[in-house]
Specification:
Elements lengths: L7 H7 L37 E2 L3 H4 L24 E5 L8 E4 L1 H12 L57 H13 L1 H27 L13 H13 L1 H12 L27 H6 L20 E3 L3 E3 L5 E7 L2 E3 L2 E3 L2 E4 L2 E4 L26 E11 L5 E7 L2 H4 L54 H13 L1
Antiparallel strand pairs: 1-2, 2-3, 4-5, 6-9, 6-11, 7-8, 9-10, 11-12
């Protein structure tokens, strides 16, 4: 069969890299609050929303990025040694191409890949204990499922996405829009509810027949009349506790967070047990993307870090963490130290324990450290939370981890107030007398009275004895 012939324009669009760019994602939303929000328009977003564009060196010299017009070298090649851009608008009303630098997310991705860290499912980290949660890969068959996966009917299978929204994260306007959508689907939802009622009656009939020892093959399927269905609807409306699991299953909604303690005694629509892959998703909402976010496709930590001289190592080579905020009080509250590891802000896990050998600049800001305060760290876990942010957990590198690579923590020099004159052979410090108040500063050296030389200890003692004897 001959293939369909394409026009030159269609063929050009099919081979164009510009038209192959994916659409932009929605930017992260700030949580609703009544307080004043101070944010920067140029701050790095938690996750990229537009694709990064690179160009060969030969095209970069001409400003050719494969776009409608060439980009200026002053904003691309002359501004950075590794120019990477993201496209905001191909053509604006002013006939310009709106673009920004995409080096921030691109370099963060490269730095993270150098850590050789597999992505884990989100976990709750308790700083009062040193027990690290178990690594659970999001690529396991029982966890890597969405609403269209084929194995959802198997027991014990979890998923990371539902067709319905997360009700706890909707605003009032979004919830009203969702209610209108559900109202338009009322005939379809009633049909699905009737099918669920039939499945429930069949399961009850099979249970009774199995208890009586009857043959399950000859069991007749129960018939549901319209009166039975209406009676079932009235029963659900009168009992919110029973109606909650039915609604969550019917609308395919994500499980809601636990009720506060002050509302436990109140009657509410009970949510069924969460079917999400991680408990953190039930508290903070399902993930916006795949739990791995495409950062790493390794499934475990089963890696051997082979040193060229000392052989296989238990831990990988430590990385240097820059202290962004020392431990102390921040906004009136006691805060943990925050360090940057591979372009990711990480809270110091050892901040809750007492250590005598604290790195320099961790307890308080120290401006005398060359290049800023840093310490060596060993990454342990990495995950993507529900908001799309990278959560990295690291410990301070042990001495055995730093020894094969010959790295050490910075130690400030021992400060002393002894001058170089005092360290000399004579060991005497010159006396610096202040100018008397009754002596004017404008007096010339010739008019100033000459100072008497300092007497030794024996001369002072001899004169004192003579005065006492007289």
């Amino acid at each position: 069969m001959a293939s369909a012939r394409l026009s030159p324009t269609a063929n050009l669009l099919r081979k164009s890299r510009l038209f192959a760019l994916p659409p932009a994602l929605n930017p992260p939303q700030d949580p609703p609050t009544s307080k004043a929000v101070r944010e920067s328009d140029t701050a790095t977003l938690p996750y990229p929303i537009r694709a990064s564009i690179v160009t060969p060196r030969t095209s970069l010299a001409k400003g050719d990025w494969g776009l409608k017009r060439a980009l200026p070298a002053k904003s691309t090649s002359e501004k950075s040694s590794r120019p990477i851009v993201r496209l905001n608008a191909l053509d604006t009303y002013e006939h310009v191409t709106d673009f920004d630098s995409a080096t921030d997310h691109t370099l963060t991705l490269q730095k993270f890949q150098e850590l050789h860290m597999p992505i884990s499912l989100p976990f709750e980290m308790k700083y009062a204990t040193n027990v690290m949660p178990e690594h659970r890969s999001p690529f396991e068959e029982s966890l890597d499922n969405s609403e269209t996966s084929k194995g959802l009917g198997e027991p014990g299978v979890k998923q990371y996405r539902h067709t319905g929204p997360w009700l706890a994260g909707l605003t009032e306007a979004e919830f009203a829009t969702y209610l209108n959508t559900v109202s338009r689907r009322k005939p379809e939802l009633l049909r699905q509810l009737r099918e669920q009622l039939v499945e429930k009656r069949i399961a009850e009939a099979r249970k009774k027949a199995q208890d009586k020892g009857e043959d399950l093959e000859t069991l007749a399927s129960p018939t549901i009349t319209e009166e039975d269905f209406r009676r079932y609807l009235k029963t659900l409306r009168a009992n919110p506790t029973e109606m909650g699991p039915v609604l969550f299953k019917l609308l395919d909604l994500s499980s809601s967070p636990d009720r506060p303690n002050d509302r436990v005694a109140n009657t509410a629509y009970e949510a069924p047990g969460t079917s999400l892959a991680a408990i953190d998703y039930a508290k903070n909402g399902p993930p916006r993307t795949h739990p791995s976010a495409g950062l790493s496709y390794s499934r475990s930590h089963a890696l051997i870090y082979n040193h060229p001289k000392y052989g296989p190592q238990v831990t990988q080579k430590p990385v240097q963490a820059r202290i962004l905020r020392p431990k102390g009080r921040f906004r009136g509250r006691a805060s943990r130290a925050v360090a940057g590891v591979g372009g990711i802000a990480v809270e110091d896990l050892n901040g809750m324990t007492f250590h005598t050998d604290m790195p320099a600049g961790l307890m308080s800001f120290d401006a005398s450290i060359p290049g800023g305060a840093k310490y060596w760290a060993s990454p342990i876990r990495a995950s993507i939370d529900a908001a799309g942010r990278i959560r990295l957990v690291s410990n301070r590198a042990s001495e055995m981890a730093k020894l094969p690579y010959g790295v050490e923590e910075y130690k400030p020099p021992e400060g002393t107030n002894v001058s170089d004159v005092a360290r000399g052979a004579h060991g005497r410090v010159p006396r610096l007398d202040r100018t008397p108040l009754n002596q004017a500063r404008w007096m010339t050296p010739a008019n100033r009275p000459t100072r008497q030389p300092m007497k030794g200890t024996e001369d002072v003692a001899r004169s004192l004895v003579e005065k006492l004897g007289s």
